[in-house]
Specification:
This is Tim17/Tim22/Tim23/Pmp24 family-domain-containing protein. It comes from Lipomyces kononenkoae (Yeast). Among the domains are: 72 residues, no CATH class; 47 residues. The chain contains five helices and two strands. Strand 1 and strand 2 form a beta hairpin. The chain is elongated and about 120 Å long.
């Protein structure tokens, strides 16, 4: 039972470890100046407003407002008025009741139109921004593809034929609008003769 560990004064061999890799030490960064802080905040704000979810929300809100305004304009010129209220002809009601019935009808149409335009705007903007980010290009085909997907998605509940028709119609409309909006993007002619 003689062991080297049990003897007093015996030296225990040390394990050898490989040397640690060189870890560079960088000098501490100087604190940002006030101008640099403001520039970074502006960059973060710009990136936030240019993000796809924010573009989609802004387009949805703009579509909602414009859809309601369009419906108000068209509803004020419409000839179809509510026939009656509670089984009585509208012309037999007092003026206040007639106005209330007409405004209620107009409000319902405005709400429906605003929701539809808002949904279309939000879906289209989100899909187009996502396609643009995936392709890393900004050209007419982003809008055409987004129009097709948006039209197909909105009409999918009516069946595949309606979805295909919606895809084609929205893609054609989006392509036409993009062509019209991009017509001034071409460089000017070299000479005045062109």
């Amino acid at each position: 039972m003689s062991s080297s560990n049990s003897q007093p004064g015996a030296v225990v061999p040390q394990a050898s470890f490989p040397p640690l890799p060189f870890i560079p030490r960088f000098p501490p960064r100087p604190p940002l100046t006030e101008e640099e802080i403001i520039m970074r905040q502006m960059q973060y704000g710009e990136e936030f407003w240019k993000s796809c979810p924010m573009k989609s929300v802004m387009a949805g809100v703009a579509g909602f407002v414009l859809g309601g305004a369009f419906s108000l304009l068209m509803g004020s010129m419409a000839y179809d008025v509510p026939v009656g209220l509670g089984g009585r002809p509208l012309s037999d009601l007092p003026l206040r009741e007639q106005m209330r019935a007409q405004f209620k009808d107009l409000g319902g149409k405005m709400w429906s139109s605003a929701k539809s335009f808002g949904k279309i705007g939000g879906i289209f903007a989100g899909v187009e921004c996502s396609i643009e980010a995936l392709r890393a290009k900004n050209d007419i085909w982003n809008g055409v593809a987004a129009g097709c997907l948006t039209g197909g998605a909105l009409a999918i509940k009516s069946g595949p034929q309606a979805a295909l028709s919606g895809c084609a119609a929205f893609a054609a409309f989006s392509g036409a609008i993009d062509l019209y909006m991009r017509r001034d993007d071409r460089p000017p002619p070299d000479t005045d003769e062109d």
